[in-house]
Amino acid sequence: QVQLVESGGGLVQPGGSLRLSCAASGMFFSSYTMGWYRQAPGKQREVVARITSGGSRNYVDSVKGRFTISRDNAKNTVLLQMNSLKPEDTAVYYCNADWGVIGYWGQGTQVTVSS
User: Fold this and answer.
1) CA–CA separation, 102 vs 98, rounded Å?
2) Who's near 41: CB < 8 A, 6+ residues apart?
3) 79-94: per-residue pLDDT in tens?
4) Cα–Cα distance between 58 and 16 in angstroms, integer?
5) For the residues 26-50, what does the mean pLDDT come to?
């Protein structure tokens, strides 16, 4: 049974940092493209960052230079380091595992950026 469990969300002031973690189990982790998505109230879910099995990264333009995605295949973990956070980054952040026609989602973790 595949499980993706996110952690690390919370309340942070503008300009602050958070690190999200996603622990995966029940899957051959290193074969999957892993990603972070987010969904703000009243908006569609959007991709934030993805990292392939080979380590290639891509980011949505709004987070380039502020967020960094990384993975540790030995620990079956994907991280999202978020710096210089802005109020518009407020959303529920979801971990995603993608292997072509097969995909899995975590339950989400809330990130709130507010003074």
Assistant:
1) 6
2) none
3) 999 999 999 999 999 9
4) 22
5) 96
